[in-house]
Amino acid sequence: MAKTLKLDIYTSRTKVYNTGKVMKKIIILAALVISNLVNAQQDPQFTQYFDNFLHVNPAYAGSSGMLSATAIHREQWVGFDGAPRSTTLSVHTPLNYRSVGLGLTAVNDMIGPIRQTAVYADFSYTFKLGKTSRLALGLKGGVNMLNVDKIDQNVQADDPAFANVQNQLNPNVGFGVYYHDEHFFLGLSSPRLMESTNSTTYREQRHYFGIVGGIFPVSAKWKLRPSVQVKATMGAPMSMDISLAGIFNDKLWIGAMNRWNAAAGGFVQYQITRQFRLGLASEYGMTPIRNYNNGTFEVLMSYDFNYKKTDVKSPRYF
Fold first, then answer.
1. Model-level pTM?
2. Which residue in 318, 285, 304 sits closest to 49, CA to CA?
3. Using CB atoms within 10 A as the burial measure, which of 138, 175, 306, 312 is most buried?
4. Tally of domains in the chain
5. At residue 160, what are phi and psi to the nearest 5 degrees?
6. Is residue 143 part of a domain?
7. 3-state DSSP call for residue 13?
8. CATH of the domain at 40
9. What DSSP string runs through 80-144?
């Protein structure tokens, strides 16, 4: 008999119980699904969360002062069957009446046979508090589409974990507050305010996000940009991400991050042109599941539609 190994995955998304390599595929899929049926955190997590504000906070829409687009793709626990794969795309811009910002966010999140696709529109209104300080209020509205592949080769037809899971279309709304000035930013939000109460199938939970950080010059060439993100929901452990980036010559970003009691990682980003930034990131798990995968990897692409003829002198730090 295969030796039973209990894997307590202290992340914001899953608790996995593995009863040996032979049954690994089936058990992991069932456990991942069950974790979404009970009170658990459902939003995907990203190493480069600091470039993904609009995903969780609609008040960020238009804050860059130009049309901006950001895409992140994440492969979590590479080599582990049924592991999470997440892709997010956000586009936002201020209107000619610059107090108003509009945005669009889309997320595709796969865990085993479950696929979640969310599409949301974002609206913000910004108040000028000083020469560079701004306070924005934001609203988010859209739908979350849940699709379950019950004929997946790794899913048993009589598995009770999937008996009551059905394809769904769930509308929802969110709210956010975002303050920023030249050197500091602070955001509070709940991207999904409506909670479904159906106890026999997938339930959406209300999530709360807080993020704070800033930019600090340390020499003529170097700047530091620390940031902290906290995510919380009822019935699941609070998740905290801490990151610190060193920025060289406003072109090269080198940094490290830590997800409390879950993972540590690093990232590098480069401002290839005035408009285009490319980022790569990797995480190393701090839980026993690290013995069963080859790590987590991310790629980020960000494009600002800024066609000024001069080079970047004051790039977008947040």
1. 0.82
2. 318
3. 138
4. 1
5. -65, -20
6. yes
7. coil
8. 2.40.160.40
9. STT--EEEEEEEEEE-SSTTEEEEEEEEEEEETTEEEEEEEEEEEEEEE-SSS-EEEEEEEEEEE
Domain ranges, residue 162: 5-304
- Cα distances (angstroms) measured from residue 281 to each of 48, 150, 253, 263, 266: 7, 33, 11, 13, 6
pLDDT greater than 70 at residue 214? yes
Q: What's the CA gap between 58 and 89, in Å, rounded?
A: 14
Q: Closest Cα partner for 207 from 22, 49, 55?
A: 55
| In a domain? residue 317 | no
Between 207 and 292, name the one with better pLDDT.
Answer: 207
Position 24 in a domain = yes
DSSP 8-state class, residue 200: T
Q: What is the pLDDT of residue 147?
A: 86
- Cβ–Cβ < 8 Å for 60, 92: yes
Give the separation between CA 243 and CA 247, rounded to whole angstroms: 13
Instruction: Judge whether 316 lies within some domain.
Output: no
* Cα(184)–Cα(204) distance, integer angstroms: 32
- Gyration radius from the chain CA atoms: 20
Q: How far is CA 224 from the centre of its chain?
A: 22
Among 143, 48, 66, smallest CA distance to 102 is for 66
211 DSSP β-pair partners: 187, 229
DSSP 8-state symbol, 43: S
For tokens 């509205």, what's the residue?
141
Average pLDDT over residues 18-23: 39
- Which run of H or E residues covers position 35? helix 24-37
Integer Cα distance of 38 and 41 in angstroms? 9
The amino acid that residue 55 corresponds to is: H
Task: Provide the token pair at 66.
Answer: 């130009």
